[in-house]
Each structure stands twice: as structure tokens, then as C-alpha cells.
TrEMBL record:
Its main location: nucleus. It comes from Lactuca virosa. This is Pre-mRNA-processing factor 17. The keyword Cell membrane does not apply. Residues 18-29 have a biased composition (Low complexity). Residues 182-192 have a biased composition (Acidic residues).
């Protein structure tokens, strides 16, 4: 405590010393009260004015559509005002979605109904007066008021029936007075209007009943000359189109020793001992025979159905030849009926007849044994593929894929076209019957596959993908469940023949070069192997299950266009090429 007292006394002494040291000459310090020079203003009124301005501004300002809470009751104008400032993030033109009733924005309802508008519009153009749409109450009229009084204010839609009849009678009377009692011509408007009695009286015959009957005046010299030239031209066209294709006499030459043997059997009769020795097929290894006789390339070959003891070939030298396979190995008969290269050939079920399609626009139906042409068919277009219906009871029905995108169906017995399947966008290349011959699949230059019900010209399945190429050759698997299609992107694609005709992506056969060539694809009779020719003269064999290349044979100089497995001899294959040769491999 003594120490604290000492500190206190020391502080008091220091204070006293400082007061004594201040000079006497320093002026005294004065305190000045601050004053404002501005006049006094009533702040209450000012604050009320500012509040009103803010309130008015909030009442006129449009609502922000992005805000979730509105703190006051907005007016109708505020709710429906267009959004100002930057564009609304959810509406390109600045209109909120709730305000839109049209793709271009908000459209107000019209104050007048369409029927009322049409009524007034037509009344104005007919009578010269109409109701004023801007009138707030009652009917005020604009236009010709005299006509209004004369017609009692009627519109075009509410003329009474008796009034209409009266007007007709008045018009007729006026016309009679003008003509002096003679029959007057009816009003032009009435005569031309099909809804009036006058028109019905004048046109008792229906306007759809054909050409109007009337006396034809004499033709001028110019018209006569034109008619003669036209008739002459038509006559020439008629002569040309008698056959439609290019005409050529049909000939056939038999090259064998005799057409019938000592027992009276025909040369096309199959040998009795021709039977399949084994169900298992093998890949051929060596060349056993070569048939040469065509002066140009061979475009197609077909084995005789079921037995394969003869082979038919179509040549680019316009000839079709049939060769012996089992015995002599020589040409048995030559069929000459086309003036240009033969494109396709097809046997009937028993082999007694066959079809040929040539670039001379003709399809010919031949008797295999005698070499006579039974029928000739033509539409004036090039047939690319010909097929007979495989059903035994429909062997008289011929299908041909034409260069004009159509598949034409003929009845061979009558020679008449019975159906046209016209859906493709390019020339038709193949026709393949599936599903117990109830349907057929066609391929075309339009890079698509189309499936048809036989006899119905409506596509039931259309297969076209951006990656697809044209498929100039299609073959049916022996079990009937798959189609092998030669695609021009150097691969063979497999499609199911069930309802959906789906592409089997797991099976794809590649390695050969066929781009630009319609090389034939085919199966072995047991379905274990797939084979195809290629553009380099090779014949390729693939295993059906593994899709691997089994063997390749160098068969021809140039393109190997056709390859067929023998129907009975399981290890024998025939190939044909553009070198004019047909080769037999074992």
C-alpha cells in the first residue's frame, strides 16, 4: 500500500509541473457550434415521394421469370409483358414458355369467328355491303347502303329458298323479254356451276363419260400431213415391236452319234446307275476334263437337274451348248437363237426344257432334246436373270429380272404377262426362291435385297444398309435356312431365310477378289463347303462352320465367273471362265 501511495504522489507532482510550464501568451481555446446554410426541408414528403416512385416502378416492371417468389400482387400487364433486356434463357424470342400459344410467339384470339368473317367478306363482294366489325353494339353497316335496303340486309348465307326461286324466275323473265319470246340462254354463271339445275339439264351426260360427241370439221393440209406421218411412224414401231427383241432364226445342231439308242431312249435320259455314292463331300484337287467350243467367254453353267450327266453352258458368242459329263465328254447339241451374248440359263425341274436370256432382249424357252424353241418372250428390255417357279405344279410360270428395274412374270402356256413386281431402283440381278417356294428374294444394282410373296407385287421385307454393296449372285444353302450373297466388296454375306431375313454377322467369307464381276457363289450338296470364282481366275473353297479358306484352285486365265458342284459325285466341281473354257475338277 505504501508503494501505491508513493506512485500516486509522484503522478500528482508531474501534473503540477506541466501546468506551470505552459506559456502565458497562448490564446484560449474556444468551442464553435456548427451551423448549416441550407434552408430547412420537410423530409417526410420527400421520403413518401421516393416510396411512391419505387412502388410505381415495381408495378410497371415486368416480372422476372427466373424468380421463384413474388412479394407483391402483380398486375395483368406485368404478368403478360414481354421480357426486356437480355434474351430469356429458355425462350429464343424473349417470350416465356407459359406465354406461348404458337411457334412464333403469342397470338391473340380474333374477335370474329371464321364463319362470320367469310359470310361478311363474301356478302361485301357480292352485294357491296357488310357489317362493320368495329361497331361496339348492334349492327352498323359499311358499303352500299342502297343495296342494303334493297336486299333487306341479307347475306350470301341466309337467302331464303323461295327468294332464290323468285330470283331465278325473274332472271328468266328478263331474258325472255330481251329475246322477244325466244328461249333465252341461261345465265352463264348458272350454266357453268355444276350445283345448279341449269347445268344438269345442259350436261345430262357425265363429264367423266368420255370424249364429247360432236361433228369434226375438215382437217387442214398441215393436219392431214401430220396425221399421215404419225400413222406411218406408228406402223413402223408396231413392226419393230412385234417381237420387241432383236429377231433371229432359231437353229439347233446335234453333234452326237444318234439321238436315240438301240432301246429307244433319248440322249438326255439319265443313266440308270447314276446314284450318290456317299453323302460326304470333298474338295477337288486336280483337273480331269476341259470342254472347249465357245469362241468367246462362258457366262454361266448349269448341271442337268438331279443327275448331272449333262452340263449346259451359256456363251458370249450368242450360243448355248450342252455337254456330256459321264461318257464321251463331248458337246451334244448347240442351240442358236440369240443374236447377242447369252446372259443367263435355267433348267426346268426335270431338265427336259430350259430357259435362256440374252442381251438381244429375248427370253427363249427351249426343248432340250429336240432343240426347238417352244416360246419367246420379250418386253423390249434386257433380261438379266430368268427362273421358273420350282414347284412342280407351277412349272409354267416364268420370272425374269429386267434391266428396267422390274421382275416380270409370264404364264408360258398363254404367253401373257400375269404380274409385274416393280419396286427396285436398279436393274434386277438375281431371283432366289425360299420358304418352300412361297417367297422369293431379289437383288439389284440399287444395293438392296427385297423379299416378295409369290404372286403379290408388294415387298414384305426390304434390306438396305449404308455399308451394303450390290449382290450380283445369290445361292440357297441345301438346308434352305441360309442365303449366301456375293457382295461386290470382296466378301460373301450370309442371310437367314426365316421371317426377319437377318444378316448373320458371325459368318463372313472373304479373301477373294470379285469387285466388278458377277462371280457365282455356290454350296456343296452336303452344305459343308462354300465356293466361288473370282476375278483372277481362281476358285475358292471355304469351310461353312469355321468360315476359313479351305483351298484355292487356279482354274482360268481371266475371270472365273461360274462354279457348280456336281449334284451326285461329291468331289467333282465344274468351273467356267471368260477364256471360253469349262473345266471339270476332281
Amino acid at each position: 500500500m505504501d508503494l501505491l501511495q508513493t506512485y500516486k504522489d509522484t503522478d500528482a507532482d508531474d501534473q503540477r509541473m506541466s501546468d506551470q510550464s505552459s506559456p502565458d501568451s497562448s490564446p484560449p481555446r474556444l468551442t464553435i457550434v456548427p451551423k448549416s446554410a441550407a434552408p430547412k426541408v420537410d423530409d417526410t414528403m420527400l421520403s413518401l415521394t421516393v416510396a411512391d416512385a419505387i412502388a410505381n416502378k415495381s408495378l410497371t416492371k415486368p416480372l422476372d421469370p427466373t424468380q421463384h417468389v413474388v412479394a407483391f400482387n402483380p398486375t395483368y400487364d406485368q404478368l403478360w409483358a414481354p421480357i426486356e433486356g437480355p434474351a430469356h434463357p429458355y425462350a429464343k424470342d424473349g417470350l416465356a414458355q407459359g406465354m406461348r400459344n404458337h411457334k412464333l410467339g403469342f397470338v391473340e384470339n380474333a374477335a370474329i369467328e371464321p364463319f362470320t368473317f367469310d359470310e361478311q367478306y363474301n356478302t361485301f363482294y357480292k352485294y357491296g355491303y357488310a357489317a362493320d366489325p368495329s361497331a361496339s353494339a348492334g349492327y352498323n353497316y359499311v358499303g352500299d347502303l342502297n343495296a342494303l335496303k334493297q336486299n333487306d340486309g341479307i347475306s350470301v348465307y341466309n337467302i331464303p329458298q323461295h327468294e332464290q326461286k323468285k330470283r331465278k324466275l325473274e332472271k328468266k323473265k328478263e331474258a325472255l323479254e330481251k329475246e322477244g319470246g325466244d328461249e333465252a340462254e341461261e345465265d352463264k354463271e348458272e350454266v357453268e356451276n355444276p350445283a345448279t339445275d341449269a347445268w344438269l339439264l345442259k350436261n345430262r351426260k357425265s363429264p367423266w363419260a368420255g370424249k364429247k360427241e360432236g361433228l369434226q370439221g375438215e382437217l387442214s393440209e398441215e393436219q392431214k400431213k401430220y396425221a399421215e406421218d404419225y400413222a406411218k411412224k406408228k406402223g413402223e414401231e408396231g413392226d419393230k415391236n412385234k417381237d420387241k427383241g432383236e429377231g433371229m432364226s432359231d437353229k439347233s445342231t446335234f453333234h452326237g452319234k444318234e439321238e436315240k439308242d438301240y432301246q429307244g431312249r433319248s440322249w438326255i435320259a439319265p443313266p440308270k446307275d447314276a446314284k450318290a455314292t456317299n453323302d460326304h463331300c470333298y474338295i477337288p484337287k486336280r483337273l480331269v476334263h476341259t470342254w472347249s467350243g465357245h469362241t468367246k467367254g462362258v457366262s454361266a453353267i448349269r448341271f442337268f437337274p438331279k443327275n448331272g450327266h449333262l452340263i449346259l453352258s451359256a456363251g458370249m458368242d450368242s450360243k448355248v451348248k450342252i455337254w456330256d459329263v459321264f461318257n464321251s465328254g463331248k458337246c451334244m447339241r448347240t442351240y442358236m437363237g440369240h443374236s447377242k451374248a447369252v446372259r443367263d440359263i435355267s433348267f426346268c425341274n426335270d431338265g427336259s426344257k430350259f430357259l435362256t436370256a440374252g442381251y438381244d432382249k429375248n427370253i427363249k424357252y427351249w426343248d432340250t432334246e429336240t432343240g426347238q424353241v417352244i416360246s419367246t418372250f420379250s418386253t423390249g428390255k434386257i433380261p438379266y436373270v430368268v427362273k421358273l417357279n420350282p414347284d412342280d405344279d407351277k412349272q409354267n410360270i416364268l420370272l425374269a429380272g429386267m434391266s428396267d428395274k422390274k421382275i416380270v412374270q409370264w404364264d408360258i402356256n398363254t404367253g401373257q404377262i400375269t404380274q409385274e413386281y416393280d419396286q427396285h431402283l436398279g436393274a434386277v440381278n438375281t431371283i432366289t426362291f425360299v420358304d418352300n417356294n412361297r417367297r422369293f428374294v431379289t437383288s439389284s444394282d440399287d444395293k438392296s435385297l427385297r423379299v416378295w410373296e409369290f404372286g403379290i407385287p408388294v415387298v414384305i421385307k426390304y434390306i438396305s444398309e449404308p455399308h451394303m454393296h450390290s449382290m450380283p449372285s445369290i445361292s440357297l444353302h441345301p438346308n434352305g435356312n441360309w442365303l449366301a450373297a456375293q457382295s461386290l466388296d470382296n466378301q460373301i454375306l450370309i442371310y437367314s431365310t426365316r421371317e426377319r431375313f437377318q444378316l448373320n454377322k458371325k459368318k463372313r467369307f472373304a479373301g477373294h477378289i470379285v469387285a466388278g464381276y458377277a462371280c457365282q457363289v455356290n454350296f456343296s450338296p452336303d452344305g459343308r463347303f462354300v465356293m466361288s470364282g473370282d476375278g483372277e481366275g481362281k476358285c475358292w473353297f471355304w469351310d461353312w462352320k469355321s468360315c476359313k479358306v479351305f483351298r484355292t484352285l487356279k482354274c482360268h486365265n481371266g475371270v472365273c465367273i461360274g462354279a457348280q458342284w456336281h449334284p451326285l459325285e461329291q468331289s467333282k466341281v465344274a468351273t467356267c471362265g471368260w477364256d471360253g473354257l469349262i473345266k471339270y475338277w476332281d
